[in-house]
Amino acid sequence: MIDQKKIRVGILFGGKSAEHEVSLRSAKSILDALDRDRYEPVLIGIAKDGKWQSVDEKLLPPGESLAIGSTSTETALVPSSEGELTGTAAAGHIDVVFPVLHGPFGEDGTVQGLLRLANVPFVGPGVLGSAVGMDKDVMKRLLRDAGISNANFLVFRSHERIPFEAVRNTLGLPVFVKPANLGSSVGVSKASDEESFIAAVEEAFRYDTKIIVEESIVGREIECAVLGNEHPIASVPGEVIPHAEFYSYEAKYIDADGAGFEIPARLDPETMSRIQDIAIRTFRTLSCEGMGRVDCFLRADGEVLVNEINTIPGFTSISMYPKLWEASGIGYAELIDRLIRLAIDRHERDGKLLTSR
To answer: What is the rounded average pLDDT of the residues 69-83?
Structure first.
C-alpha cells in the first residue's frame, strides 16, 4: 500500500516507434495537469535509439514539447527493482509508471513486461492486453471469435507473394493497407487500383513484417473511451469527421483542419448504449484493464463494426480519450488520478497471487 504524502509518478515517454513525437505531446500534457500536491513527477524519456534518460523538467520551457537531448542522464529500470531507477541519484524510487509510449516498443506489451519484472504498478493494460491490442491481426481474430463484428481482412507477411486479383475478388475495392503493429494511422494507405495497392503494400512493409488488408467500410467513425479494471465503464461516444479521404496521421496531428469532432456524437439513445456495450465487450475480450479507446464504424443500417482498440491512446488535453471523458463528467486531472489509482489497485490485487508452491 502506497501511503506516503506524495506519490512519485514516472512519466515514461518517447520511444523507438514512428509515434515518438505524438508521445512527447501526451507526456507534456500529463506533466502540466498533474496535481503537484498529490504527485511528484519523474520524467523518463526514451530516445529514438532506445536509450532511457532521466529528464529534468526545469530544463523545459513552459508550453514547449518535451525534448530528449544531451543534457539528460541515462537511467534504467531493472527487474525486481521495486521501482528503483538506476544511473541517476536524482530520480530514485518511483511508485507508479504512467507510460505514454504509442506504438511498438511501448504499447505492444514489451515495456509492460519490463514493468511487471520490475514489480512496479503501471497505468494501462498488462502484457497480454497490450500485445493483442497492438497486433491488428490477432485482435481482429479474437473479436471475430467473440462475435464482435469487424471489417473483413486478409493478412500477409513480407516473404509472401500478394496477388492483387485475389485481394480484389475477396475484399473488393478500395481497400486499406496497414502495418499489423502500429497506430496513429502511420503507414496506412487507401488503394483503389493495382498501382496504388502495390505502393500501399510497400509503404506498410516499411514499418512491419506483417500487414493487413481490409475492406473499405462506408460509415460514421465513432470512438468510445473505456476506463476500469474488473468493472470497466464507457464514456459517451464521439464522432470523428475526416475532411480528407480518411483519418490519416496528418489529419490527426499536423493539419489543424484535417478533421472535425462531435462530442458527444449525435446518436439515438439505443445506438449510443449499444456502442458503449460493444466498447466494454471489446475491452474485456482483449484482456484490457486501466484504459482503452475503442474505434468503431457505424453503418447506415445501424450495424457497428469495431475498427481497433488503442491501449495507450493519445493523451494530450485535446485528444479524443480525455475529451470523451470530459464530456462524460470526468475532467483531465481527475482522469489522471483515476488511472493512477487503477494501476495501484491492480498491482496490489495481483501481488496477493501465489507465484510458487
So the answer is: 79
